[in-house]
Amino acid sequence: MGQISYGLQDKVVLITGGSRGIGLEIARYCLAEKAAVVICGRKQDGLDAAVESLGEPGEDVLAVPAHIGKEDDVDRLFALIEESFSRLDVLINNVGMNIMTASIVDTEPSLWRKIIDTNLTGTYLCSRKAAALMKRQKGGKIVTISSVAARRATSAMGVYGVAKAGVEMMTAVLAAELAADNIQVNAVAPAMVRTDFSRPFWSNESLYKDIVSTIPMGRIADPVDVVHPVLFLASEGAGFITGQTIVVDGGATII
User: Torsion angle, CA of 146/30/48/124, rounded to 10 degrees?
Assistant: First the structure.
């Protein structure tokens, strides 16, 4: 995993949606840093597979089934963290859902709520609970995964883009509200990342060529390209950075 170190040893790190994709890779790097890692996901079998993939004994990874869009699940998740560790140093809001949608005006309200609840409301619920713990311990880091969809109107991704734009504004508002408590709140906004989530796009050779033609660096991101900015923002090296969103897109949004 290279020689970069982020000083996370003995830190307690919660990664929502940590059972696969970017979240799982973040968990892997946090464990390599000797952090205590908590991951959550909706499906127990996915969490079990993640723990096995991480190759760590149970006491190093706390895997909790939870739907972050449901307040009761979030309350239970944070109660377990408090019971197990009595603190939380880093929250990484990684859970996201992108269902291809019709135009916003043609999207059914039930689908709107599903996408908003997972991407925006879930981030609010987790950030709220994390902030209460971090205020008590007089410091902490909140890092949220956004998307370039928050900055660009894209067909079939309108509701997702609205949710992620809300995430970025919430990042700024929380940063202002929590600065006096020594809690830094930031976000990372990647373009397409090579995960199972986006496989239908990058596994199609013709479609992939069309996508990378819009990216100056000539490729889509790998999960590790997102991991490093996230861990930087979770580190003491980012102690005077708050309310910011780092775009990880290979230069796509500059052209």
Answer: -30
Instruction: Kindly give, in sequence order, each residue whose CB lies less than 8 Å from that of residue 238, ignoring residues fewer than 6 positions away.
Output: 141, 184, 186, 232
Distance of CA 12 to the CA centre of its chain: 16
Instruction: Respond yes or no: is residue 160 known to be catalytic.
Output: yes
> For residue range 9-45, what is the model confidence (pLDDT) as tens digits?
999 999 999 999 999 999 999 999 999 999 999 999 9
The three-state secondary structure class of 47 is helix
Q: If you count DSSP H runs as helices and E runs as strands, how many of each does the chain have, helices first? A: 9, 7
pLDDT for 156:
81
Q: How far is CA 124 from CA 134, 192, 195, in A?
A: 15, 24, 25
How many other CB atoms are there within 10 angstroms of residue 170's CB atom?
Answer: 19
What is the model's pLDDT at position 212?
Answer: 95
Return the CATH number of the domain spanning residue range 12-194+222-247.
Answer: 3.40.50.720
DSSP string, 88-104: --EEEE--------S-G
pLDDT one-digit tens code per residue, 64-79:
999 999 999 999 999 9
Identified catalytic residue from 6, 29, 160, 208? 160
Tally of CB atoms within 10 A around 187: 28
Number of Cα atoms under 13 Å in the Cβ half of residue 100: 6
Q: What is the mean pLDDT of each run of 10 residues along the chain (255 residues)?
A: 85 96 96 96 94 74 95 98 97 90 92 95 98 98 96 87 97 98 98 88 89 95 97 98 98 92
CA distance 131 to 115: 24
